[in-house]
């Protein structure tokens, strides 16, 4: 299947986990794909990696310009997967103001900066789509995730607002809301737990399917929302959470 033949895509946080799976799938389906990441050293052909820190506007603008140029689409970008993000644990008492600013800077402003840099290029596309990686945490009321959930609530609202703002320019904006996904991030979380096996079992039990979501399953949802197959869909959140919120 080659639903992305001739299209160009840019994926932030694409060196690991969900972003990497999405970048690989879009490339497999025919897109030319650039990855922006803090550390793109693991990214190789057919993907092209660019170093960027989404908390630094200058870095984002330079990397987007280089990536769009490198994609060879004459300034046209068809797909932006706004995915770079970091976690935070605890109640509102657990994190300092500095930590709140830092996580919002990556998870929310990082998507704003990247969207701002990409919009002129997306406007030139006949199939423009933005897919933001949100989370079940945006709406599920998860314990011990106050700061992280607040950032993803903002990503959800941002998705709806951007969908309304850009629909008349032919740019669709949607998000995916994963449950707990088996990525290096969750691996690090489990490694830090007192009892990693018990923690993993607890995370699995939270999802009615009884297992973690795979990065490939989230990538599939991202690819659908990025593809012309979902051409009439904008301003939606697609749950990829093993039934966590729906059952
Ligand atoms: P990951 O840690 O495996 O990958 C994240 C990538 O983002 C890394 O390559 C990292 O270098 C990059 N990154 C981090 N900060 C950056 C910055 N400032 N600038 C540029 N790149 C940066 O994590 P993942 O689990 O694949 O998570 C990806 C996204 O999915 C995040 O937005 C996360 O909130 C979301 N998400 C993850 C889960 C989960 O359970 N893993 C669930 C729901 C949502």
Describe this structure in words.
Pfam families: adh_short_C2. Its EC number is 1.1.1.-. This is SDR family NAD(P)-dependent oxidoreductase. GO terms for molecular function: oxidoreductase activity. By secondary structure, this protein is an alpha/beta fold. The chain has one domain: NAD(P)-binding Rossmann-like Domain (Rossmann fold, 3-Layer(aba) Sandwich). It has eight helices and nine strands. A seven-stranded parallel beta sheet has the order 3-2-1-4-5-6-9, sandwiched between helices. It has a two-stranded parallel ribbon with strand order 7-8. Helix 1 crosses helix 8 and helix 2 runs parallel beside helix 3. The chain is globular. The mean pLDDT is 96. Bound molecules: nicotinamide-adenine-dinucleotide.
In a nutshell, what does this entry contain?
Pfam families: adh_short_C2. With 247 residues, the chain is of the alpha/beta class.
Describe the protein's topology.
Blueprint: E1 8-12, H1 17-28, E2 32-37, E3 48-51, H2 57-71, E4 79-82, H3 97-122, E5 129-133, H4 137-140, H5 146-166, E6 172-178, E7 181-182, H6 184-191, H7 196-205, E8 213-214, H8 215-226, E9 237-240
Parallel strand pairs: 1-2, 1-4, 2-3, 4-5, 5-6, 6-9, 7-8
Helix pairs in contact: 1-8, 2-3, 3-5
The structure holds nicotinamide-adenine-dinucleotide (NAD).
Known CATH architecture: 3-Layer(aba) Sandwich
**Number of beta strands:** 9
SSE order, one letter for each helix or strand: EHEEHEHEHHEEHHEHE
Tally the helices: what do you get?
8
What is the domain total for the residues? 1
Low-confidence stretches: none
Please indicate the percent range of residues in DSSP E strands (runs of 2 or more).
15-25%
Shape: globular
Q: Radius of gyration over alpha carbons? A: 17 Å
Ions, cofactors and other ligands present here are:
nicotinamide-adenine-dinucleotide
CATH fold-level name: Rossmann fold
End-to-end CA span: 32 Å
Identify the strand order in the major beta sheet: 3-2-1-4-5-6-9
Main β-sheet, in a few words?
Answer: 7 strands, parallel
Helix content: 40-55%
* CATH superfamily grouping: NAD(P)-binding Rossmann-like Domain
The first-level CATH class is given as Alpha Beta
InterPro entries: KR_dom, NAD(P)-bd_dom_sf, Sc_DH/Rdtase_CS, SDR_DHRS6-like, SDR_fam
GO molecular function: oxidoreductase activity
Pfam families: adh_short_C2 (PF13561)
Protein name: SDR family NAD(P)-dependent oxidoreductase
């Amino acid at each position: 299947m080659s639903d992305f033949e001739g299209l160009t895509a840019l994926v932030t946080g694409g060196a690991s986990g969900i972003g990497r799976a999405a970048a690989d799938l879009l490339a497999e389906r025919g897109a030319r794909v650039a990855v922006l990441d803090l550390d793109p050293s693991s990214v190789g052909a057919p993907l092209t990696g660019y170093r960027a820190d989404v908390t630094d506007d200058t870095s984002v603008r330079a990397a987007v310009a280089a990536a769009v140029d490198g994609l060879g689409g004459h300034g046209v970008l068809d797909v932006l997967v706004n995915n770079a993000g970091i976690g935070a644990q605890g109640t509102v008492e657990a994190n300092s103001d500095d930590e709140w600013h830092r996580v919002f800077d990556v998870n929310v402003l990082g998507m704003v900066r990247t969207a701002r840099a990409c919009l002129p290029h997306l406007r030139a596309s006949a199939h423009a789509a933005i897919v933001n990686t949100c989370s079940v945490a945006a709406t599920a009321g998860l314990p011990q995730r106050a700061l992280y959930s607040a950032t993803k609530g903002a990503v959800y609202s941002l998705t709806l607002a951007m969908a309304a703002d850009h629909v008349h320019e032919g740019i669709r904006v949607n998000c995916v809301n994963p449950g707990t996904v088996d990525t290096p991030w969750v691996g690090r979380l489990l490694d830090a737990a007192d009892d990693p096996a018990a923690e993993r079992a607890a995370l699995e039990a939270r999802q009615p399917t009884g297992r973690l979501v795979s990065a490939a399953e989230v990538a599939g949802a991202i690819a659908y929302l990025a593809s012309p197959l979902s051409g009439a869909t904008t301003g939606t959140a697609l749950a990829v959470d093993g039934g966590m919120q729906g059952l």
